[in-house]
Amino acid sequence: QNHQLRLGCSRRRAQRLVAMAGSGKFFVGGNWKCNGTKESISKLVSDLNAATLESDVDVVVAPPFIYIDQVKSSLTDRIEVSAQNTWIGKGGAFTGEISAEQLVDIGCQWVILGHSERRHVIGEDDQFIGKKAAYALSQNLKVMACIGELLEEREAGKTFDVCFKQMKAFADNITDWKNVVIAYEPVWAIGTGKVASPEQAQEVHAAVRDWLKTNVSADVASTVRIIYGEVP
């Protein structure tokens, strides 16, 4: 259950990745998914509290919802806390859902939206996810907006088409991008042992940035942070 971000590129590759990531601070996020117990999460928080973090890096963790309060009460303020999902609007008679207002109430700063498991296992579509993002932002949550293609879509040469369609749903609903981080996570690299090369990730990052310049604004294209995610 110890998911780690592994960076293994040369200085030149690292410089190219930084250029593609956008301006502003580096960003590292950890999605704990449906993992952990009170005991194991307490140990993980202890390890995080003991870590030395660079000042130019934003670090965010996303524990399961039932452990958010435990994490918030014991984790250093240097690391921000995210939810893994939220409802599309104001709370009410929506069994099993968590509203953005509730997340803010318990001190959450971020939410992950559009993750491939929500898209392909739960069945959330692009526009539903885009509307979720708009509502979360309206309630002062920051959003990790996830995009990515299936293996068959990559093999069919549809990577850009899929990612642009997902981006359009976000752009149709988001008016202010300053609290958005775009996370490109190819579905075929999640828990499969396959890893996208730095060049593959950079190619998509550059294409998404160009899409933003054409379809949103040059300012958003130059400032929004675009990151790469996977679980080896």
TrEMBL record:
Family statement: Belongs to the triosephosphate isomerase family.
InterPro entries for this protein: Aldolase_TIM (IPR013785), TIM_sf (IPR035990), TrioseP_Isoase_bac/euk (IPR022896), Triosephosphate_isomerase (IPR000652), Triosephosphate_isomerase_AS (IPR020861)
Record-level Gene Ontology MF annotations: triose-phosphate isomerase activity
Protein keywords: Isomerase
Protein name according to UniProt: Triosephosphate isomerase
Pathway(s) it belongs to: Carbohydrate biosynthesis
Assembly and oligomerization: Homodimer.
Organism of provenance: Aegilops tauschii subsp. strangulata
Cellular component terms per the entry's GO annotation: cytosol
Record PANTHER family: TRIOSEPHOSPHATE ISOMERASE (PTHR21139:SF2)
Membrane spanning residue stretches: none
Top-level taxon of the source organism: Eukaryota
SUPFAM superfamilies in UniProt: Triosephosphate isomerase (TIM)
An individual GO BP term: glycolytic process
